[in-house]
């Protein structure tokens, strides 16, 4: 039915919800953003909904225990941060996504033409609608909620939801607060259908129970009010997991954040670049706007003897970093990647090194321990190697680099000219052991 509506050129406003559990969205949230961007390019107005109200309750879906309670100030800070990210990414997408003559959506580094559906409403920023459900729940009393919404909910149906049933069977159980979450999210759909003409709610596959709670409420509430309920739809997409079933977007250091303030474009790019061969084609299909034919060609090329390793990973990292951080962020990531490659010919500058400062080991040494000191002494003082003998052997083996230039002299001395802008020095002992040295 949804396909028939879309094929008939019917405008279907669509929304995806984002709960403010942190001050940044993460890679797992990116699928929802991509769905909104894709819908917008095809002429279906996208709405991003921040859960200012639902975030105070916590979604039990996919959780084995209750989420920690955040203060109202924390929730508001988180909403402000993620709303900014949503506007930035979706605004850029609105200006750079367009539909080709054969019906494909393409992402261009140049703004889409004014004739495209993604730019027909004027400025890209004007096309990004970000709402907060606290705006309609904030003034609603508990008794009003029970009277106007709760009376249409059936406990048997609520208990049958997978998110509820699995928690009830767990050791920690489920609180009444979390139990009511599906009604709050369900009423979001009602409100958006009434006030914004929304006809589609999209979300991860674990959101199906919450989405159908919304379609049920739309039918019951509007019928009770004597209105003809509109035809509304739920749309789910698979969760982002790797070939071993682990959530993609989680690293040993935590989530892979979309906010540049929490994770540099360089580190974001590197995470995607390190995706395994078993996962890269799947993620190219899910996280990029590359034509499926191009992805199929990459998949075929991976099985050929002349395939250059990581070609597909490079394509994935570039496409996703461009979508999230823009051309400027991608350029920064590529420059930093090149800067950290021993032997690279790229001239280093302080701005590039500062961009990777949080992603590479660093230390501070007094100027007197650097200028005029042998590189052997500096590397030992920086803690890169334990002894001078180790450094000497590595120099003889061609494994020591200073500012990406190979060091061949055992008694090489650090000069003032070696300090980038008088304050930074990049050292490498082998391919992976790097150190950014700052002048105290």
**Termini separation:** 66 Å
- Radius of gyration based on Cα positions: 26 Å
In terms of DSSP E residues, the strand content is 5-15%
What share of the residues lie within helices? 40-55%
Number of helices: 17
Structural class: alpha/beta
Notes on the structure:
It contains 17 helices and 14 strands. The chain is of the alpha/beta class and 440 residues long. Helix 2 crosses helix 3, helix 9 packs across helix 10 and helix 12 packs across helix 14 (311-339). The longest helix is centred in the last third of the chain and has 29 residues, at 311-339. The chain is elongated, with a radius of gyration of 26 Å. The model is unreliable at 113-122 (pLDDT under 50).
The gist of it:
The protein has 440 residues and is an alpha/beta fold. The chain is 42% helix and 13% strand.
Essential attributes:
5-stranded mixed beta sheet, 42% helix, alpha/beta, 5-stranded parallel beta sheet, 17 helices, 14 strands, single chain, 13% strand, 440 residues
Ordered list of secondary-structure elements with their pairings:
Layout (H helix, E strand, L loop, with lengths): L1 H6 L6 E5 L11 H12 L4 E5 L21 H25 E3 L5 E3 L21 E4 L1 H4 L4 H7 L6 H6 L1 H7 L7 H4 L1 H16 L3 E5 L3 H17 L8 E5 L12 E2 L2 E2 L9 H9 L3 H11 L4 H11 L8 H29 L10 H6 L6 E4 L9 H7 L6 H9 L3 E3 L2 E2 L17 E6 L3 E7 L1
Parallel strand pairs: 1-2, 1-6, 2-5, 6-7, 10-14
Antiparallel strand pairs: 3-4, 8-9, 11-12, 11-13, 13-14
Helix pairs in contact: 2-3, 9-10, 11-14, 12-14
């Amino acid at each position: 039915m949804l396909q028939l509506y879309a094929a008939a050129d019917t405008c279907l406003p669509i929304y995806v919800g984002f709960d403010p559990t942190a001050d940044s969205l993460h890679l797992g949230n990116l699928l929802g953003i991509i769905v909104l961007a894709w819908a917008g390019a095809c002429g279906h107005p996208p709405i991003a909904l921040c859960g200012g109200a639902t975030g105070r309750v916590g979604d039990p879906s996919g959780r084995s225990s209750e989420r920690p309670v955040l203060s109202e100030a924390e929730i508001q800070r988180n909403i402000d941060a993620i709303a900014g990210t949503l506007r930035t990414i979706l605004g850029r997408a609105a200006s750079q996504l367009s539909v080709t003559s054969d019906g494909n959506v393409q992402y261009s580094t140049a703004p889409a033409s004014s004739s495209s559906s993604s730019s027909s409403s004027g400025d890209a920023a004007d096309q990004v609608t970000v709402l907060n459900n606290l705006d309609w729940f904030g003034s609603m009393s508990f008794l009003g909620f029970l009277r106007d919404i709760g009376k249409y909910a059936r406990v048997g149906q609520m208990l049958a939801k997978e998110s509820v049933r699995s928690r009830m069977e767990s050791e920690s159980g489920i609180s009444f607060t979390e139990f009511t979450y599906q009604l709050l999210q369900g009423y979001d759909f009602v409100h958006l259908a009434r006030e914004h003409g929304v006809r589609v709610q999209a979300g991860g596959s674990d959101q199906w129970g919450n989405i159908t709670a919304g379609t049920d409420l739309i039918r019951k509430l509007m019928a009770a009010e004597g209105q003809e309920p509109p035809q509304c739809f739920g749309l789910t997409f698979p969760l982002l997991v790797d070939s071993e079933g682990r959530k993609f977007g989680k690293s040993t250091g935590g989530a892979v954040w979309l906010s540049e303030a929490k994770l540099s474009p360089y580190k974001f790019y590197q995470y995607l670049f390190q995706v395994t061969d078993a996962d890269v084609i799947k993620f190219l299909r899910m996280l990029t706007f590359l034509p499926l034919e191009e992805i199929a060609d990459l998949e075929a090329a991976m099985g050929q003897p002349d395939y250059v390793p990581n070609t597909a990973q490079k394509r994935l990292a570039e496409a996703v970093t461009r979508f999230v951080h823009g051309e400027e962020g991608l350029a920064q990531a590529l420059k930093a990647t090149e800067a950290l490659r021993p032997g690279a010919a790229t001239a280093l500058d302080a701005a590039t090194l500062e961009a990777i400062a949080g992603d590479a080991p660093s230390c501070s040494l007094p100027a007197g321990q650097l200028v005029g000191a042998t590189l052997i002494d500096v590397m030992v003082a920086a803690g890169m190697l334990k002894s001078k003998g180790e450094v000497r052997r590595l120099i003889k083996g061609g494994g020591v680099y200073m500012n990406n230039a190979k060091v061949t002299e055992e008694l090489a001395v650090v000069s003032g000219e070696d300090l980038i802008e008088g304050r930074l020095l990049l050292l490498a002992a082998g391919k992976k052991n790097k150190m950014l040295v700052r002048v105290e």
